[in-house]
């Protein structure tokens, strides 16, 4: 349910906090006190336009709603210099906020963007009377049929380009296979080619190193070793140094031998270098065409081979999909016909129930029609469109709901909610009592209270009959530049009912208010 609504700088409201209870909540107050502005605040969460709604107390307005359910949810929308919708503090698009708000909140008011006018919502209301298994079965059959249609379209498109695509794939697979690529081969070949490209520089530098080590440096090390060895006869401390120098001398002799072998092996082979360069160029071309690394080149070849296999079996799969489509279409039509039959039966029950309810709600000669119009092809939700039509005049044919006034539409929504249960957890009515009085007002009040047993209901009203039925009665009052909300109980509630009855606090009005309250208390 909606636990708390916070409003800042909305029209004449500087700041207001609305705290609701389960069941039927009513808002009353003097004309112009700001009752409907609180409904406007909720409409903003449902995506309503905010033109001209920013008040004089800042450069933006803010609406925040706190909902309590299996998981708490906080929805907010700032409008003005900084326009930001949020869900649980996270910035979202206005569409995302609207979709989330619709999960928690239904709003019925003249100025609101009424969801009930949409064909989608009318279908959902009717479908609330059906066995959910019928809807699931149709949705699954439709999804299966659509998936096969998509596969057939893809296969047909692929087959139209099959010959050219197959030629390309065969060429690519053959090119990669004939290259006999090995992972890491390019790095190995590049290292070898780099040595051959710089052969003269290697000879020069390795030769100078050999000459230095084999000549003076080596002789100097040997002479130094002999001197330390001789000195060690007189001081054993030199024995360790002589040993270290002897090991270094052995290392130098080993390096000299290795350099000699290296220099003997530095032979140029222009043909081998040309072969390496050619191979490296081939590998580079493959990498430019199929992937930045040889590993990815090989992976591309595998994928091309798989696609080629699929294309070569495309005709067979297309024939198979055709057979599967025929079966899927038959299953879809069976599921659709079962759904249509259930809708026709539900429509008959709903029409009968609605006309009875509408008579009780002040439409004595109303006609309510559920129009099921067949679609040319099965749609995602069935074989037909659902449209509600209404006429309060027996001499006029039922017309689309968009022709109804806000008060009429609110009462229609109330009747639908009672008969189908197809409403959000919190339902708001702003003009449900327009033009009502007497016995009809009581019947509307009783039905609002009954709906409040299953949903949280918020009603903006001027009727004492509805206010007397409330589980929580709140009064909107002007407080300086802002708006305040008072929870009415006891004698304060009696006085407010008396004001609604006669605009005065006479003893007769107060007595009548106490009587209403005793009759209307839930």
Write the layout of secondary structure elements.
Elements: E1 2-10, E2 13-19, E3 24-29, H1 35-45, E4 60-67, E5 73-80, E6 84-87, E7 90-91, H2 94-104, E8 105-108, H3 119-127, H4 132-160, H5 162-179, H6 185-197, H7 199-214, H8 216-231, H9 237-265, H10 270-290, H11 294-312, H12 314-360, E9 367-379, E10 382-391, E11 399-400, H13 406-420, E12 426-429, H14 438-452, E13 456-460, H15 464-468, E14 472-479, E15 482-488, H16 490-502, H17 507-520
Parallel strand pairs: 3-13, 3-14, 8-12, 12-13
Antiparallel strand pairs: 1-2, 1-4, 4-5, 5-6, 6-7, 9-10, 10-11, 14-15
Helix pairs in contact: 4-12, 5-11, 6-10, 7-8, 7-9, 8-9, 10-11, 12-13, 13-14, 16-17
Describe the structure.
It is a single chain. This protein has 522 residues and is α/β, with parallel strands linked by helices. The protein has a domain of 150 residues. Helices cover 58% and strands 19% of the residues. The protein is built from 17 helices and 15 strands. A 6-stranded antiparallel β-sheet has the order 2-1-4-5-6-7, covered by helices on one side. It has a 6-stranded mixed β-sheet with strand order 8-12-13-3-14-15. A 3-stranded antiparallel β-sheet has the order 9-10-11. Strand 12, helix 14 and strand 13 form a beta-alpha-beta unit. The longest helix has 47 residues. The mean pLDDT is 86.
């Amino acid at each position: 349910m909606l636990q708390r609504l916070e409003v800042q700088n909305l029209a004449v409201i500087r700041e207001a906090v609305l705290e609701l209870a389960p069941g039927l909540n009513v808002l009353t107050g003097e004309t112009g006190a700001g009752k409907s502005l609180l409904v406007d605040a909720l409409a903003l969460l449902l995506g309503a336009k905010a033109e001209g709604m920013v008040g004089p107390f800042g450069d933006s307005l803010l609406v925040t709603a706190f909902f309590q359910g299996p998981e708490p949810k906080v929805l907010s929308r700032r409008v003005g210099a900084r326009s930001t919708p949020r869900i649980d503090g996270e910035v979202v698009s206005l569409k995302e906020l609207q979709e989330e708000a619709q999960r928690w909140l239904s709003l019925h008011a003249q100025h609101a963007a009424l969801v009930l006018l949409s064909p989608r919502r009318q279908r959902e209301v009717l479908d609330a009377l059906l066995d959910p298994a019928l809807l699931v079965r149709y949705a699954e059959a439709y999804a299966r049929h659509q998936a096969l249609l998509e596969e057939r379209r893809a296969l047909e498109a692929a087959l139209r380009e099959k010959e050219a695509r197959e030629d390309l794939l065969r060429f690519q697979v053959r090119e990669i296979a004939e290259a006999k690529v090995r992972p890491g081969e390019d790095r190995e070949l590049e290292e070898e080619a780099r040595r051959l490209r710089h052969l003269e520089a290697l000879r020069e530098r390795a030769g100078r190193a050999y000459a230095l080590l084999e000549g003076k440096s080596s002789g100097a090390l040997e002479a130094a070793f002999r001197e330390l060895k001789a000195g060690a006869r007189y001081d054993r401390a030199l024995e360790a140094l002589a040993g270290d120098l002897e090991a270094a001398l052995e290392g130098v002799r080993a390096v000299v031998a290795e350099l000699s072998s290296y220099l003997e092996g530095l032979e140029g082979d222009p043909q081998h270098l040309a072969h390496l360069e050619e191979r490296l160029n081939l590998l580079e071309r493959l990498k430019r065409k199929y992937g930045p690394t040889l590993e990815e080149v090989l992976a591309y070849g595998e994928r091309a081979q798989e696609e080629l296999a699929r294309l070569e079996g495309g005709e067979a799969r297309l024939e198979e999909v055709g057979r599967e489509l025929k079966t899927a279409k038959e299953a879809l039509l069976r599921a659709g016909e079962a759904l249509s039959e259930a809708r026709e039966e539900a429509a008959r029950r709903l029409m009968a129930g609605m006309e009875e309810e509408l008579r009780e709600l002040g439409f004595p000669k109303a006609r309510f029609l559920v129009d099921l119009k067949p679609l040319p092809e099965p749609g995602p939700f069935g074989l037909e469109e659902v449209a509600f039509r209404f006429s309060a005049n027996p001499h006029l044919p039922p017309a689309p709901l968009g022709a109804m006034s806000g008060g009429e539409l609110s009462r229609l929504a109330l009747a639908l909610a009672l008969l189908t249960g197809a409403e959000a957890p919190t339902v708001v009515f702003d003009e449900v009592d327009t033009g009502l009085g007497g016995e009809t007002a009581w019947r509307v009040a009783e039905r609002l209270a009954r709906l409040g047993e299953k949903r949280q209901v918020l009603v903006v009203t001027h009727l004492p009959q509805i206010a007397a039925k409330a589980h929580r009665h709140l009064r909107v009052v002007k407080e300086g530049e802002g708006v305040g909300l008072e929870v009415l109980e006891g004698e304060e509630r009696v006085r407010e009912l008396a004001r609604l009855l006669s605009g005065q606090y006479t003893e007769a009005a107060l007595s009548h208010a106490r009587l209403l309250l005793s009759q209307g208390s839930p």
